[in-house]
From TrEMBL:
Organism placement in taxonomy: Bacteria, Pseudomonadati, Pseudomonadota, Alphaproteobacteria, Sphingomonadales
Cited PROSITE patterns: GLUTAREDOXIN_2 (PS51354)
Entry superkingdom: Bacteria
Pfam families xref list: Glutaredoxin
GO molecular function: 2 iron, 2 sulfur cluster binding; disulfide oxidoreductase activity; metal ion binding
Binding site residues for [2Fe-2S] cluster: 30
Domain Glutaredoxin: 17-81
Organism the protein comes from: Croceicoccus mobilis
Name this polypeptide is given: Glutaredoxin
Length: 110
């Protein structure tokens, strides 16, 4: 299990914002992942994504790593933020955008 935790730690430290999701940003494979992508697009931040459907070790390991049972999962500057419901609540309250600004997250290009 330590090996998968090391892989996940490496993944979440590579980008300011990382979304573990089902599918890809262009082709989300569930409604919750689609909503999470839309929220990040509205925030205008650059982010990396991991398709958990392509790696069963990551799919199971991320749940233990964050102690959160569902996917998608959002990480900002290596810290777990939450799933799509928490993302939506934070976005609607302006808290997600504020967090991105406070953490000096890179903006999306273009």
């Amino acid at each position: 299990m330590a090996e998968i935790d090391d892989r996940i730690t490496d993944i979440v430290s590579k980008d300011d914002v990382v979304l573990f999701m089902k599918g890809t940003p262009l082709f989300p494979q569930c409604g919750f992942s689609s909503r999470a992508v839309a929220i990040l697009e509205h925030c205008g931040v650059a982010y990396g994504s991991v398709d958990v459907l392509q790696d069963m070790e990551i799919r199971q390991g991320i749940k233990a790593f964050s102690e959160w049972p569902t996917i998608p999962q959002l990480y900002v500057k290596g810290e777990f933020v939450g799933g799509s419901d928490i993302m939506m609540e934070m976005f609607e309250a302006g808290e997600l955008q504020q967090l991105m600004n406070e953490k000096n997250v890179a903006k999306a290009e273009g």
